[in-house]
């Protein structure tokens, strides 16, 4: 996991870099925050040249070897998404997962940005 931090009296969090894929022009970051109750908040900020809703997911594997969807995330709309997933921060940090943004629901096989957790 990239840049994991603990601030005294605050939740554990990590910022993930989302790298452009397929010359999409889209990149950004995802902030994962431990909510302390076995859930994790995932906030995506990835300005998009596209006006449509973009599906986003946490997949098993890495950006280089992406597996299946493990946790669906809220669609990226206007470059942002905010979701609480039923996974502990520790499970996400210790596993092999990637956050992936798709071009659209119709073009879900076209990936626009991805970052390894």
From TrEMBL:
Family matches, as Pfam families: CHRD
Domain annotation CHRD: ranges: 20-105
GO MF, one example: metal ion binding
GO biological process entries: superoxide metabolic process
Family assignment from sequence similarity: Belongs to the Cu-Zn superoxide dismutase family.
Name of the molecule in the record: CHRD domain-containing protein
Organism of derivation: Candidatus Spechtbacteria bacterium RIFCSPLOWO2_01_FULL_43_12
């Amino acid at each position: 996991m990239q840049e994991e931090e603990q601030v005294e009296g605050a939740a554990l969090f990590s910022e993930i870099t989302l790298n452009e894929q397929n010359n999409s022009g889209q990149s950004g970051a995802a902030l994962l925050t431990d909510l302390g109750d076995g859930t994790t908040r995932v906030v995506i900020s990835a300005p998009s040249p596209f006006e449509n809703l973009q599906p986003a997911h946490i997949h098993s594997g890495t950006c280089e070897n992406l597996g299946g969807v493990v946790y669906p995330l809220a669609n990226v709309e206007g470059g942002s998404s905010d979701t609480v997933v039923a996974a502990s921060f520790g499970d996400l940090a210790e596993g092999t997962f990637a956050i992936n943004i798709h071009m659209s629901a119709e073009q879900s096989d076209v990936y626009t940005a991805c970052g390894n957790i």
